[in-house]
Amino acid sequence: MRVLALTHGPSVGPGVFADAVRAAGHELVEHQLPVGGLPGDADAIVVLGGAMHPDEEDRHNWLRSELRYLERQLERGTPLLGVCLGSQLIARAAGARVFRADEPEVGWLRVQLSTAAGSDPVVSSLPTSFEAFQWHHYTHDLPEGAVELARSRVCTQAFRLGNAWGVQFHPEVRGEQVEAWLAEDPDDVADAAALRAGTRERIDGWNELGRRLCGAFLEAV
After folding, report:
1. Is residue 128 within 8 Å of residue 85, measured between CB atoms?
2. What secondary structure letter does DSSP report for 151?
3. Is 156 helix (H, G, I), strand (E, B) or coil?
4. Burial class, 70, CB count within 10 angstroms (exposed 0-12 / middle 13-18 / buried 19+)
5. Cβ neighbours around 194 below 10 Å, total
6. What is the band of 38 on the pLDDT scale with cuts at 50, 70, 90?
7. Fewest C-beta in 10 Å: which of 82, 139, 158, 163?
């Protein structure tokens, strides 16, 4: 299976998802959309995060093209897995409203699965309650016909719409990516030392969870 990883910058790659794709014997193709233009089709697509927001097409003109691309993939039924910005873009492509959350979520924060998650082939791979690594300022409404699979105190954290899944947290992130984001956006973090300490304590288990989630997505599709 050819798995396309759509990225939106040099520090927001597939992380441990790459491990899961290769371990399952599939081909992973990384494509940085802002500099590479629209990619072709694939058997499955992972839409990753980025420093921009999902409604900033006036600043990032390529977002318009990406939204049209995702609309086509939703219509085709292509398996999609969106992460953070990727989840927001899939929701927007499906007609949902995207907007700034009541408060940002940056760091290790509690996420709770919904009852519906128990029967979902992808999100059921996660614990019913866990501390997730987050870094976002925006959220979205649920698209029409979608099922909410997880929430935090602030917003929706996971949903499914047909053959598309979105998660607001970052199951793919490696420790070195966290360091890169801290260097890029230091003002987003009130206590960088505490974030680093929490990441050192949790990252190995978090990476195993991320590989498991991506593996469940690959099995489901």
Report:
1. no
2. E
3. strand
4. buried
5. 12
6. confident
7. 163
Judge whether 80 and 45 are in contact, CB under 8 Å: yes
CA–CA separation, 65 and 33 (whole Å): 10
Structure token pair of residue 149: 């699979």
The number of CA neighbours under 13 Å toward the Cβ of 220 is 22
What is d(CA 179, CA 74) in angstroms, rounded to the nearest whole number?
34
Domains of the chain: 2-220 (3.40.50.880)
Q: What is the pTM of this model?
A: 0.97
Instruction: Dump pLDDT digits (tens) for 98-135.
Output: 999 999 999 999 999 999 999 999 999 999 999 999 99
User: C-alpha distances in angstroms, 196 versus 37, 104, 168, 193?
Assistant: 34, 18, 20, 5
